[in-house]
Amino acid sequence: MAELLGFPPQVLFGQLLIGLINGSFYALLSLGLAIIFGLLNIINFAHGAQYMLGAFVAWLGLNFLGVNYWVSLLLAPLVVAAIGIALEKTMLRRLYKEDHLYGLLLTFGLALIIEGSFIHFFGVSGQPYSVPQALTGGNNLGFMFLPTYRAWIIVASLIICFGTWYMIERTKLGSYLRAGTENPQLLQAFGINVPLLITLTYGYGVALAAFAGVLAAPIYSVSPVMGSNLLIVVFAVVVIGGMGSIMGAIVTGLLMGLIEGLTKVFYPEASTTVIFLVMIIVLLVRPAGLFGKEA
Amino acid sequence: MTTQALNSSAVDKSMARTKVLFLVLIAIGLVAPFAIYPVFLMKVLCFALFACAFNLMLGYGGLLSFGHAAFLATGGYITGHTVMEWGVTPEVGILIGTVCSAAMGFVFGKLAIRRQGIYFAMITLALAQLVFFLYVQAPFTGGENGLQGIPRGELLGFISLEDNLPMYYFVFAIFIFGFALIHRTIHSPFGQILKAIRENEPRAISLGYDVDKYKLVAFVISAGLAGLAGSTKSLVFQLSSLTDAHWHMSGEVILMTLLGGVGTIFGPVVGAATVVTLQNYLSQGPLASWVPVILGLIFVVCVLLFRSGIVGEIQKFMKKNFS
What we know:
Chain A is mainly α. Chain A has 11 helices and 2 strands.
């Protein structure tokens, strides 16, 4: 196996691995967007800023309070979710009766505020965050070298993604969420506290973004602008997948990461644009998205 | 008098008021360069036209485009390129830039109209980001440096625009043209149908209107005028850069429209003037690095507290107290 499709296997598999890692982040972020959209009917434009906040909470915790990576992995999502819940209770809540576009505009403004403040204090250059001791090193798989931390990202995000899927599709709490997505008034009439459900859902979606941020901290440097450019790609992923299905969001995220990785091998110039091009093709062929429900 | 007659006289009155306001604005515009720095005024006019073009879609069609930066940048780059490399006169350069933006608007529209509401916003944002990455790599845009030193040239081949005053009146004329075109569009039968689609799309469909076609035409007009603003801007500052193509720019035009008043004729002009003035003042002071944060704060306050914007609130106030 000296060459594969004209490329050395190390290069091909190396890029596929990077693709799979990016795909894990796309999956985590689009999953959060889809859950929030399902119940709140808004697109959370602050999602990228909240992803960045997750990474920064971990970085600040490590450098100023000595909180290690593993604690941050649990703590940062909780902290960021608490901030998200506060925003939902004080601001987003007032907009549910208005046009849904206002939710998008409000979260866009919040994203500008959060990102701008962090740029003011930390600049746009990235801060390093070292890989935790237990996950350093790697294994030689024969056809490629697999760094342990990169394997961990994929495993961790897959566990969280499928855990979320299981919770929504197979548990009692998830059935409330699905019912709320279909018809919140009826659910409320059955005695479920829908406003609380909405708050918790927003908090959970935000926590997913922060979790992705902590996972990303050691491989991408921690910077205030790490979220905003990623978010636009995730929007394209969401358009491709359609937000109707949880599994759809996960699968599309991973798939788009792999396609991006392959493009880096075969035609690197297009690697930044390939996902947008896929979006255009999907819009032409199947406007509702790969997993969309609307006709 | 029947209620209908009452209504139509009220409409006549408001039309007459708009006309008077319009004439006052033209008069102010003609003398303004003698009191205020013309380059600043030209910047305001370019962004005002940009915001008016955007408002045609959001305010009258209910379509939130998050990708209007792409049209502004396309107009600017194409005009800059044709003027610098082909040596065409400014008005021809602007025409080519505008046409290219309108063509891009046609492509964006064709794709984005396939989905509604929030998806429409996301698709336009993603397409604009695609255009941004293309401009980063394309050879004719000058990459990170942009196009610098674009000559203003001579209008029709004999009126030099190098001085700020003739350039100002040229820009002012373009603005009035764009503004009048938008005003005419809104008050035409086409504009009425657009509003009907905004209010109740299924009903417009059931009345037999080809909704997608109306949306597409609105998109093309809006993109073309945004391109016109970008083309003009590139000549004013003799520069076109990636800043114009960045999604921040798409956000800024939304803010201008929202702050001034979505769906009002003069709102985007007021909003653009306010935002540009604010940026100019703040960028020189100690708050320079806080500009994005302040813009974000204005966004949040607008959305939460006064969704009708400055002009919208004034209209409400007038209606309550004077009619």
